[in-house]
Target: L-asparaginase
Amino acid sequence: MVTTTDPSCATTRRIIVLGTGGTIAGRASAPGDNIGYTAAEVDVSDLLQGIDAPPGVTLFAEQVAQLDSKDMGFAVWQALAQRCSHWLVQADVAGIVITHGTDTLEETAYFLQAVLAPAKPVVLTCAMRPATALAPDGPQNVRDAICLAATAGARGVTALCAGTVHSALDVQKVHTYRLDAFASGDAGPVGYMEEGTLRALRDWPSTPQEQAGAAGALAAVIAQDPTRWPRVEIVTSHAGAGGGLVDALLRERATGEARAVQGVVLAATGNGTLHEALEAAASRAEAAGVAVLRATRCTQGRILPTPHANLRDAGALSPVKARIALMLELLVQAAPR
Model:
């Protein structure tokens, strides 16, 4: 269902608010319960009730999905990319806000930045408390996100939580329950929203070719059935790690498994280091035609090149974002030319 706060939007700028569910749309049986709620029950149009748009801006709400973000999947990502693409080309649309669950917000943000690289702002926002809480954090986050999306010069995909603006390339969820649950590592935030005004600290997100996996991948992403997107798995290196998981994935390929693995991201220790048994298995996988990429488990810093590294690295990308980058790379490689 699509709703608008003002049907006469011909002479104003529009901010499009796309709903996907999450805690921000959750309900609990008691106002004092902040963890025993059911996510994704409140319509996005209801989340806008009582929120005034900035002067000269009209809000337009559209429900794209309604799910707990732990269950986020490729089909919703494709739908979001399509709806963002549709709205961003509209001359009167100043920007987009996406309400989202916190669990996979960083993955959705990175995916959208990689495939859209938008010149207009796309702001993902969320909540750590359900809509029924005594003091819900969702309404303020939505208001801040709308103001950010209406900010002159804003561009790229960002995430906004507790007044802090994070780049899609750097944002990570770092706390299980605090209202300010996100951080940007040593890159730092893009800025802060202060009473509806942005205090910028650094440049807006941009997507270098090596980080995005493929600039201009949007056409390929939208054209492909998401059930056929390349399967990329994450395997973690740790004390006592072995190569059994990687070898099991290789056996699936050998038996002709319909959705056999095409890529593996190794969540490596420190500066991209791997347990020797896991590294040996990863090298066997690469020799068998599986794309392999190392990403660090560390929440700050990036993998710096070393002279004896046998497997390529993902630089500053976290393992979950490296998985998306590798998936997009494989998707574009397989797309018709």
Summary: The first strand starts at residue 2 and ends at 4.
